[in-house]
């Protein structure tokens, strides 16, 4: 699980792969049934790793007995690949990330059935009933086993209740769909809304089913999907009248039907489909829990009965059976001890990425994606059941959070904007050269606010470059963006964005990081310059790309094309080729500009209580990237240590991690581990860990 996204797996070669590899090496070496790398370094370095097959020419008699061996060609082992990754640091980073994610979950879980939104992402809570439901929704509990002959009494009981619930819901949906006075979507209960939305989705009528093919420009389409002002019955009847319904899919043997007959055939199809639809069935368990038709205690017991939790020596099993422990206390305890991990639940947050580099060489010391998976079960003869489980896992373990997932960089981008502002001469490194933060930036029409105004109505007053980075002042960097785009008569977004792009490309943001695994393409913002200067706009980068950037900041301007490879040797250990991170670019900026930005990052770290009491001087910057008010913000951190002579640079992102203090806390623990600042057993405790301290500006 620690290395799977990097190493990848191997399996039987496809015809296309055979052709590709043979073309690459210029001869017919690869043949049917050969085993090749399918992903990760195994795929990238396949030709180096493959080796050469041996062979024998033999004489046999008519029944196959060997009479003589005429010649033998011994097989030649493939080369050995050495990575730059520090095994122990990689494992430690993964464990630190998992512990921190569990700590965030515990902080946010409440002993309630539901959560009422306040409209603010930071206030989002996780009702304990969402934890119970996650056990069904993310396949921890195998609901298909409830129907098997060897199902336990509890499984049989839960399944009987489920069938009753399913029949009642489908009958209720039939009545609603056949009701001429059916309520508009906006007037339905939340439960019924979810059922109706499910019907009009890729899981039932749309997607691969291709039964409903609406015209999105039609007013009735908007009335259903956007205004929510009509009933599903009205929408589907209209869809029939407009020939949006593929009748051959729902009544293939009865081609001549009037509109009413088509509608009834559609209702019958929906009912029959939902009766057999496993995803719809999973949804029903949420409402069984909400209606107390299924309890949290029973959910916990099912985890034991299906082997997710081990009964041996676990006193909580007996306590749960006798109700000596509440379901809430039981589940929060299991999350705390990581017997139930964030990845298993797939609640927000459940994932994250970390990349650690040596800024002096660009070597990648750790490249972590959480949650991981067991690549051994995908190797050679693939475990198809396990593969399908991974593909359908809500935490998406096969999707690298270090090299594939992208978000806005948020305020971690501000040091780059400072370099751009200094380089273009729109701000000065002089301590006396300041910009006034009033809390609200009034030079653009939407008047964006500084974080300090949002929190408490305050402002930062006059700020120079170091102050602005230390305080993460939005207004300062709004003004930097404005000045980059200034024409003397107003602002040109095009001019400002082009200047910002120039510096972003210097730091390597114009291309992937260079890592030899699958990586998403970066996106330098091409939207409005003012928000782009604080890392918003349409900026979109992976953790690896952000690591490339902070590595450049840490080493005074040498931008490396990152690499996971160290060297290749033959099977006897003789060096074949040395690898490593090559120099991508050397920043053409004055050293004074780098120094002033580094001072700001040092001031930021040393004024954030998460980082200032570690016993090591460091530099850093946090950031948050907003997704929506219905999801927690993404949490980011970049930094390096020691400040005076950096040995490691770190980039961290927690998807939906709430606050950037959580990402900074992970970096702090990485520093503790790397520089032996605390006992390892204390740090890697195997239990959830919280955040001690705070950061500036979130």
Task: Walk me through this protein's architecture.
The protein is globular and about 80 Å long. 41% of the residues lie in helices and 12% in strands. With 698 residues, it is α+β, with helices and mostly antiparallel strands. A hairpin with a 5-residue loop joins strand 13 and strand 14. The two termini are 31 Å apart. Helix 19 (414-423) packs across helix 23, helix 19 (414-423) runs antiparallel to helix 26 (591-606) and helix 22 crosses helix 23. The strands form 7 sheets. A 5-stranded antiparallel sheet has the order 9-8-18-17-16, with helices on both faces.
Give the helix level as a range of percent: 40-55%
The residue-averaged pLDDT reads 96
User: What is the terminal-to-terminal distance?
Assistant: 31 Å
Low-confidence stretches: none
Topology, pairings included?
Blueprint: H1 4-7, E1 10-12, H2 15-25, E2 35-37, H3 40-44, H4 46-50, E3 55-60, E4 66-73, E5 80-83, H5 87-108, E6 109-110, E7 126-127, H6 128-137, H7 153-177, H8 190-199, H9 219-225, H10 232-241, H11 247-250, H12 259-276, H13 278-290, H14 296-305, H15 315-322, H16 327-336, H17 342-345, E8 352-357, E9 364-370, H18 384-392, H19 414-423, E10 435-437, H20 451-456, E11 461-463, H21 465-471, H22 474-484, H23 493-506, H24 529-532, H25 543-554, E12 558-561, E13 565-569, E14 575-578, E15 582-586, H26 591-606, E16 619-625, E17 634-641, E18 648-654, H27 660-674, H28 680-683
Parallel strand pairs: 6-7
Antiparallel strand pairs: 1-2, 3-4, 5-13, 8-9, 8-18, 10-11, 12-15, 13-14, 16-17, 17-18
Helix pairs in contact: 5-27, 6-13, 6-14, 7-12, 7-13, 10-12, 19-22, 19-23, 19-26, 21-26, 22-23
